[in-house]
Description:
The structure holds two protein chains of two kinds. Chain A is an alpha/beta fold. Chain A is about 40% helix and about 15% strand. Helix content of chain B is about 75%, strand content about 0%. Chain B starts with a helix and ends in a 6-residue tail after the last helix.
Amino acid sequence: MKGKTITVLLIAFLLVASVFSGCQVTTTDPAAPATEPSASSEGGAAPAEASEGAAPAADKEELTVFYWTIPAEEAETLKVIEAFNARDDVGTTIKLDSAGSDQYKIKLSTLMAADEVPDVFSVQSAGFMAPYVTAGKVYALDEEFTKDPEWRGSFVSDSLFESISFDGKTYAVPATQGPGVMFYNKEIFDAHGLAAPTTYEELKNIVATLRGAGINPFAFGDKTPWVGALMCEVIGNRVGAAAAFDNVMNGTGTWEDPAFAAATNIMVELDQLGAFPEGYLGIDYDQTISMFTEGKGAMLVMGAWVQGLFEEEGAAVKGKIDVCNFPAVEGGAGSPNIWLNQNQVCWSVAEKSTHKEDAVALLKMFTGPDAQRSFAENAGSLIVTNVQLDPAKVNPLSIKVTQLQESMEKVSLYYDVQLSPLLGNEYNNVVQAILAGKDATEAFAEFQQFAVENADAA
Amino acid sequence: MDKMLSNKKYICIFILPTLAVIAVMTIYPIIDTIVNSLYRWDMVNPRKFLQFKNYADLFSRDDVFLRSLRNTLVLMAVSLVVQLPISVLFAALVSGLGRAKNFFKTVFFLPNVISTVAIGLLWSFVFQPEFGIVNSFLRAVGLGDYAKAWLGEEKYALVCIMIVVCWQFIGYHMMLFSAAISGIPNDMYEACTLETDSSLKKLRHVTLPLLMPVIKVDAVLICVGSLRFFDLIYVMTGGGPNHASEVLASHMYTRAFWTMQYGYGSAICVIMLALSLVVTLICNTLLRATEYEY
């Protein structure tokens, strides 16, 4: 009997212990080593531990950094982090966390809500960061710019700061740009006697030729709705949607402007001509990119952030990819010289950070000449500061895009970045619905109503 | 030991830790969600009280919600109608197998030990339009015209999901029934043998009635499980194309975390909770009448 009682009590103890074992006890002992691993990185590359390489000095505090991984730029980002950790003149060592694009957005909003904002974090501009700025979570960098005017002066254009400034204050620094361009596979084009199209009619002929030869004209998938929306916005800039979008944003126009429907109808027409792969509504972003890098699609309309992948060692399309501007649409109210663009990666500092000086030092490293040169030369990134580059080392696609941008007349921001998260997401879904068969005029009329009804929503 | 467990004081002591955990992990979040559903809140800025506007919007303005509600109910009905009978049948068949029983049980249960994300990816390849097994097979047997972009077409996306759901969970429910069948005393079958040799009749008159309590529990499990279905859909279709495979949980996820309408997402959660309660009640009422004891 006594033995049984002991057994029961032991089991009860184990049950209770197992319940509480899940609860983490935070040690307040300053001497205790910080061995806790960084939080999980859903998607994307594994984050490097701060302790990787040279062990951090035991007396250094942590500078938490959270960013979204861009595969082509990952190695360069980690190099900057390592260089920061190796510095003797900063009082902190970086604790790194990262996530793939979709997971990053979810995690950042959760961290913001829990008021556990990382000291330094990457952001998208405009509508994406607006709620965080209004909630006072982001540190305004103006004072830092005043202290170091040379830093502010190193950026190629003031226009880079428009989408990251709110009420006259700047809340981030850009590090790279991501304009939407059209890549094409020279090998496939040459094999069929094709040249980069300059008009939409030429593009339709290319589509017909390639489809006739059993080749996917475009690597494209719209399971991830922003992929189709991006292409639609690029086309929209050729048919007057850029001006219509400006009107929507300043309150003088609506989504019922025929330019929006015209842009999506061109997508629908391309679809009917067989420009897109079979079942493209079930193909996601990653599969779209793989399709192109494996040479299974002849063209790709995408942000320039992917171009580093094409020139990587071992890539099936290495040396075979060229880039051009999506062709003009005859009779369209827009122009190919209106570029869809955004600050691809921006870095911000948390308002409540206790290590602002070090955080700003890290921002300066990301936008400093060494890192910028390294991003341009090794990751194919389009950089944002005035840095002398060695043309022999820079990704030829980057040079070509920069040349193409010389004729740029106007920049239009990605819609889902400019709009609030709700409307941006819904716009992407509207494009997907139209590709799935919905009437464009009707879809945009409904979207207009949705936009009005949710004008005051978060 | 028996004496100790009949003492209410001890029972309370044993239950208390679990109760505390349930209160903190389940009851508090439920109440918090209900409260949040009455607000407009983006999780970072101050929230604004809206009364029941979120609920009104759900039913009057949000087509995607209505579509996801319908999809969820269809998914639940199909799961119930397909999974329940097949898993009972499989359990009955496997139980009569003797030594091979364990082998088949393991095989059928296998999908449950694989992570749902892996299953989603696996089946995405099966349904892949160009090199997927389904289309390759159709083309090989000369039915190439029937090859479809399964997950990329509105008509088929949800059907494909249902096939995978059934494939994944039939083994699990079969295990439950199989365990219950092994608990039925052999005397019952022996008595029945005096009347008939037909296995079908034994199933109909002995196994099924005695399985009723388990069937009831299982029906509730299937229904409630279907209501909160999320991961497979997230991996396979992301709710698309054009919301064709959107379910309540995926719509809630998009609205709460993606578009930062936490209050609105909470309202969808509350609807899911209410549906779960209603469905559980219905299951219990419908299946109450037929219980046997032995």
